[in-house]
Amino acid sequence: MDTKSNPVSKKQAVTSRISYAFGAFGHDIFYATLSTYFITFITSHLFNTGDAAQNNRMVLYITQIIAGLRIVELIIDPFIGNMIDNTKTRWGKFKPWVVAGGTISSIALLILFTDMGGLNKTNPVLYLIIFAFIYITMDIFYSFKDIGFWSMVPALSFSSEERGKTATFARIGSTIGANIVGVVIMPIVLFFSLNRNGGAGDNRGRF
């Protein structure tokens, strides 16, 4: 929105900046949780059967699945951008993907941070299959959200100055979101844990 040509829209412009900053805040909370704590959860808390060899094999399989799916993501990302660019809805091309991508990827991430009803121990093969499906689903829809969200900036205003301010607000929200995860995650885990385990928490707190 061009605040120079439309002075009465200044309040709307400020609201837009703050809203976008909150979006970036949540966006980077998701990314920081995934990139920092997910692999810790996998390697330290998910596989603790008492059989060290089995635990190590499962961690190896999980990391191989993630690495393979990352390669797949590199291939499909250009198609995701093309799909977003060719989307035409009453809400525009970006909002539907940001909302759908954010919702689905968040639900998928929540499931990945569980033992899926104990399948990791009772049926490891089925767990790996379900894990791969949910992870690639999460990754694809996160990409839709990520590309759609950051591509919105040029569409938010005709004014380059306003776009710059919006991007600055977004980066501030993004930085806070990325860093706050490290501050709050362990207190949350400990709050839900029955045993503090020297500050590491237990499986109840992790799941």
Structure description:
It is a single chain. The chain is mainly alpha-helical and 207 residues long. It has one domain. Helices cover 78% and strands 0% of the residues. The chain has helices at 10-46, 52-85, 95-112, 119-122, 124-151, 153-156, 160-192, 203-206. Helix 3 runs antiparallel to helix 5 (124-151). GO terms for molecular function: symporter activity. It is found in: Cell membrane. It comes from Streptococcus equinus ATCC 9812. The chain crosses the membrane at residues 29-47, 59-76, 96-113, 125-144, 172-194.
Distance between the termini: 44 Å
Main beta-sheet annotation: none
Classification by helices and strands: mainly alpha
List segments where confidence is low: pLDDT < 50 over at least 5 consecutive residues: 1-5
| SS field, number of helical segments | 8
Topology:
Layout: H1 10-46, H2 52-85, H3 95-112, H4 119-122, H5 124-151, H6 153-156, H7 160-192, H8 203-206
Helix pairs in contact: 1-3, 1-7, 2-5, 3-5
Subcellular location: Cell membrane
GO molecular function: symporter activity
GO cellular component, one term: plasma membrane
Quickly describe the structure.
The protein has 207 residues and is mainly alpha-helical.
